[in-house]
Design a protein that fits this description.
By secondary structure, this protein is an alpha/beta fold. The protein has 9 helices and 7 strands.
C-alpha cells in the first residue's frame, strides 16, 4: 500500500490553517502531518516529522517570512517540496519563490478546487519521478509541465498560474499599456513567453490590446489590464 503524502500546513492564522488542513485531508492520497503558525515552529516540525513530503507555506508569518523559512530549510539540507499558499502578490516575492525552489504558488483567497488541482498535479509529479530511470525530451517536458496542469481553473493546459500571475502583476502595476518586451523586462520572462501569456489574458478578457503607431512599419501591440481601461 502506498504511503500517503504527508503535508505540513504553515499559516499565521490558526483558523486559516485549519481550513487548509481540512482541504488537504479531502484530497485522496494526502495526509496532514502537522500545522505551524510561525517560522520557528515550522522549522522545528520539519526536524521532528519523520516522513514530511510537502509544505504548504504562507509568506506572512509573525517572526519571519515564508521565503526565509524555505531558505533556512535548504541551508539545513531539507529537500521537502514547497507550495507557497499566500496573499503575497508582488512580483518580487513570486520570483523569489520560484528561485528558491517553490514548486507552485497559490494566491489567497482561493477555493478548495484551486488547492485540490495543485495537490493532484503534485501527486502526479511524484508518481512520475518515483518511476526512476532515464527520460527522453518528451518525458522531461511532461515532468516540468506536471504542475502547470494544476493551474487555476480557466488556464489552458501547459500554462502556469505562477507565470500568469507575474504577467498580471506587471500589467496591474504599470502606469499605462505595456508591450511584450516591456513585460518581459519587468518579469524576467522571455519576450516569447510574455507574448503568449498576454495573448491568453486578452482572449479571456482580462487584458485589452491597444495599438501604438510609429512613424513607419507595423503598429506596436501594447496591453493594459482590463479594469484600467
Amino acid at each position: 500500500m502506498t504511503r500517503p503524502i504527508d503535508v505540513l500546513v504553515v499559516d499565521d492564522d490558526p483558523r486559516v490553517a485549519r481550513v487548509n488542513a481540512a482541504y488537504v485531508e479531502k484530497v485522496a492520497g494526502f495526509r496532514v502531518a502537522g500545522q505551524a503558525h510561525n517560522a520557528a515552529d515550522a522549522l522545528r516540525q520539519m526536524e521532528t516529522l519523520p516522513h514530511l513530503d510537502l509544505v504548504l507555506m504562507d509568506h506572512y508569518l509573525p517572526d519571519d517570512t515564508g521565503l526565509a523559512v524555505v531558505q533556512e530549510m535548504r541551508r539545513r539540507g531539507h529537500q521537502t517540496d514547497v507550495i507557497m499558499v499566500t496573499a503575497a502578490r508582488d512580483i518580487r516575492t513570486v520570483q523569489a519563490a520560484m528561485r528558491h525552489g517553490a514548486l507552485q504558488y497559490l494566491v489567497k483567497p482561493f477555493a478548495f478546487a484551486g488547492l485540490r488541482a495543485k495537490l493532484e498535479a503534485y501527486a502526479e509529479l511524484r508518481r512520475t519521478l518515483d518511476g526512476g530511470g532515464e527520460a527522453e525530451q518528451a518525458e522531461v517536458d511532461r515532468i516540468f509541465g506536471a504542475l502547470s496542469a494544476g493551474s487555476e481553473p480557466g488556464l489552458p493546459k501547459g500554462h502556469s498560474a505562477t507565470t500568469a500571475e507575474l504577467v498580471r502583476r506587471a500589467l496591474v502595476d504599470a502606469p499605462g499599456p505595456l508591450s511584450a518586451q516591456e513585460v518581459a523586462e519587468r518579469t524576467g520572462l522571455s519576450r516569447q513567453t510574455a507574448q503568449r501569456y498576454l495573448k491568453l489574458l486578452e482572449r479571456t478578457g482580462r487584458a485589452t490590446l491597444t495599438l501604438r503607431y510609429g512613424d513607419a512599419g507595423r503598429p506596436e501591440h501594447r496591453y493594459v489590464w482590463a479594469t484600467r481601461v
